């Protein structure tokens, strides 16, 4: 996640710097990927459509972009049991277990390989599930609420100032363990958003004594909900937009598109047609592969999707999307589990409308 740099003429205030708690970005998506996605998709969407229809704990008011990335349990209408089981069997056959509880992607060829066809078939079934979700009506004054879970290393918090015997701040202490992240992103992106990080106990319970609120300034981070609405829902047209723009290296095209799509999947689940189009667009990428027995950030096991590093086919990539092996619902990534997604009227409101 990007932060606002100090101006050259601004004096260093060590006390202020110590008070400013870190607000890193979402997992998987790197800054260059984020920049390419935001700048070029914003250019396309602005040309095509101008409009489409705090609590306890320390608070950091520094701007914090939105995220890799994102992720929550997406409740979608399941396919018929036979179709779901068939998809799972195809997906599992396309990958092999490494024997140590991990996963290894198989296949290194082009778009016509059996491995790619199996991945494309799975993605098409996932798209059917995604498209079957009910559409959500969202107002400009509302917030898109997401809840996710993963290691504190992903978000760099919660953290709190460390003080010496005189009460002076000498640094910050970051909680090390699993964390729940609640985010409220403004629909239009014109207001501040909020990220709330809460530590989880070894039993998975929230620890209110270890909580941190981080302000998310407008104009930073990923595409807003309204900008997502302006994207095309035709997979071919959508893929052309995802591939376009300076800075997209052809040899890393699959990696770029895969990570950029992953960064917006959480909000896109509220837009069924777009969500389905994103999966079908990714299915056209030649290096996408299926894996099995992948765990998400909450430890849930499912079917995974990743991509082969064309420059080094024997190297396993570190980023996976994870789907429930029966319902094909999106669970998140191997780093961050998506637990909920909905729309709320107020920032900081946890009781979400239409959540799982």
Automatic annotation (TrEMBL):
Residue ranges, annotated region (Disordered): 42-69
Record-given protein name: CU044_5270 family protein
The organism's place on the tree of life at top rank: Bacteria
Transmembrane segments: 72-92
Record keywords: Membrane, Transmembrane, Transmembrane helix
């Amino acid at each position: 996640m990007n932060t606002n740099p100090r101006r050259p003429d601004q004096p260093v205030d060590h006390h202020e710097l110590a008070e400013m708690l870190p607000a890193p970005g979402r997992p998987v998506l790197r800054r260059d990927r984020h920049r390419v996605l935001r700048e070029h998709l914003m250019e396309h969407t602005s040309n095509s459509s101008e409009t489409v229809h705090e609590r306890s704990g320390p608070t950091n008011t520094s701007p914090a972009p939105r995220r890799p990335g994102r992720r929550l349990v997406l409740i979608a209408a399941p396919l018929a049991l036979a179709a779901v089981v068939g998809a799972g069997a195809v997906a599992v056959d396309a990958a092999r277990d490494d024997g140590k509880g991990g996963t290894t992607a198989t296949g290194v060829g082009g778009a016509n390989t059996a491995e790619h066809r199996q991945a494309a078939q799975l993605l098409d079934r996932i798209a059917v599930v995604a498209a079957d979700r009910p559409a959500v009506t969202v107002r400009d004054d509302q917030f898109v609420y997401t809840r996710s879970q993963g290691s504190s290393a992903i978000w760099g918090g919660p953290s709190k100032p460390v003080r010496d015997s005189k009460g002076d701040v000498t640094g910050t202490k970051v909680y090390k363990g699993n964390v729940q992240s609640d985010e409220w992103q403004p629909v239009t992106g014109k207001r501040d958003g909020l990220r709330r990080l809460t530590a989880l106990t070894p039993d998975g319970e929230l620890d209110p004594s270890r909580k941190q609120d981080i302000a998310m300034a407008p104009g930073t981070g990923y595409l807003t909900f309204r900008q997502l609405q302006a994207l095309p829902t035709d997979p071919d047209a959508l893929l052309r937009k995802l591939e376009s723009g300076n800075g997209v290296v052809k040899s890393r095209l699959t990696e770029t598109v895969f990570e950029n799509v992953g960064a917006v999947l959480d909000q896109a689940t509220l837009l069924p047609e777009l969500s389905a189009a994103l999966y079908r667009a990714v299915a056209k990428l030649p290096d996408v592969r299926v894996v099995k027995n992948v765990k998400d950030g909450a430890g849930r096991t499912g079917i995974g999707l990743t991509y082969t590093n064309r420059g080094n086919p024997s190297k396993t990539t570190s980023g996976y999307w994870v789907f429930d092996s029966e319902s094909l619902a999106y669970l998140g990534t191997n780093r961050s589990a998506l637990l909920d997604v909905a729309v709320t009227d107020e920032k900081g409101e946890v009781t979400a409308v239409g959540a799982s």
